[in-house]
Amino acid sequence: MSSLIPPVPQGSGTPHVIDPVGGCPHALNARLRAEHGPVAEVVLPGGVPGAVVLGHDALREFLAHPDVAKGARHFPALHDGTIPADWPLRVFANALGMHTADGADHRRLRALVGKAFTIRQVERLRPRIEELTAELLDDLGRAAAGSPDSVADLYAHFALPLPMNVICELLGVDPEHRDRLHDLTNTVVIATDITPAEKMAALQELMALTATIAAARAEHPGEDLTSALIAAREDDGDRLTQAELIGTMRLMLVAGHETTLNLVVNAVRALCAHRDQLALVLDAKATWSDVVDETLRWDTPVSWFPFRYPTRDLTVGGTLIPQGTPVLAGYSAAGRDEAFHGPDADRFDITRPTAARSLSLGHGAHYCTGAPLARLEATIALERLFTRFPDLDLAVPEADLPYQRSFISNNVRSLPVRPGRQATA
């Protein structure tokens, strides 16, 4: 590659200039698929050419392709001075951890973390998740009862604290750090409409706070995952480096609560808008797992996620993506791809037989390690929420909900609800 920014993918139409403010992605996804097909040229914030894979089959192929890498060494323009040091998306490319590792490094890091997220290990967390869920539902009910209009923010009182508390307990994070961790991870990873200086300041604080948490666990080890990672040794005796430890912890903190938060919120919104589907599951004609699967397809927690890089010129979905191009995984677009899911792909249907074939938790070597935990948390949360409050509904029209200012995260920033009557035991 030359020192110039890589050429854009050779598709059709004018490249789409990504709006850092983001918003609901579905109309945009449909338009881009119609205009460009399964792969679209984009201009990333900061003027950097890239691509997004929008089609289900194309994304499945791309995510598992042997000539696609996660490591930023395969993105030459990031290192040769072409892209400025304060590029706002550099944080994604430069992060260290298993999510940006390839080959043997990725397998080593994943093996260390994966032991905590087997189905058996996750199932051991069920009683604690159920206990936290019950406490937070009490809080949601109290918040609504204390409101003049019987409204409470389900985002703040339930959907956020549940996964945040679970992942922090798993990692051994003291309670006093949890609110700040959410604010910082939201700024670093979710927000894409802030200045580079703001993002860099938040990143530095997040790294420092994560290092503080790791140091505390090193000095006073416990039964938590951070202590286990610090103590872990592979067969060859190698420990995690400090950078790998901090990067892996940061990944688990972000992925461990932001995606589950979005999944729960999006599922509640979908069920409130589709009361017939809610009735199916309340009448035991479908399961809460069906709700989770269909939400992952229909309104996935992550919209367009950075980055992967072809290690050679690669044709995907009929479009040539040049070597070194930063590529976004268009999970929200693939979930409603009519070419795969059929002409009713835009319909929320928890009886859909292909719902479980969503790509929203990834595919291939980088499939989400925490998928069993996310599914368990969301299933328990939704079942207990609508069992306790069967009449729960949105307190404002769907169109008035404030979206995250991000093209990466697919969620709203608050969810005012009226819980309504509590079911009797």
From TrEMBL:
InterPro entries: Cyt_P450, Cyt_P450_B, Cyt_P450_sf. It comes from the Bacteria. It holds the Pfam family p450. Coiled coil: none annotated. Gene3D superfamilies: Cytochrome P450. Belongs to the cytochrome P450 family. This is Cytochrome P450. It comes from Streptomyces avidinii.
